[in-house]
Amino acid sequence: MIEICFVCTGNTCRSVMAERIARKMAKTRGLKDLKFSSAGLRANGKQITDNAKITLKKLGYDGRNRKSVKLSKILPNIIYVTVTDDHKRYINSKKVISFSQLWGEIVDPYGQGLDVYEKAAKEIEKNVEVLLEKIQNLRGEL
Known about the structure:
Blueprint: E1 2-8, H1 14-28, E2 34-40, H2 50-58, E3 78-82, H3 85-91, E4 96-98, H4 114-141
Parallel strand pairs: 1-2, 1-3, 3-4
Helix pairs in contact: 1-4, 2-4
């Protein structure tokens, strides 16, 4: 089992969208031994934003409510994927990669309109696609 935790600031937009997008994309690809979670560096138990829920539902993903989770400690058996390089530097672990190493960083849509959330979600999809391709390619080489 490979466990991947997506990390952003508040865990109410980007990282939770990444978690849900990755979960569905992995299932569609038949990747059953991947587990996804998400957390925020400054999460404080707030619900996922309404615009994140609406965007996820519109694009065919799980848009249910969920409270944000604070990243409290780095566990050695989890791969952390951050939405920006700043988040990666904050975590400072060998098991951390940033979206900039995949497709590209995601601008924080918090407080913005649905169009900004949808743009962020589509960019997250591209990052997750590259991540899943890398995992599949590595398995092919083993």
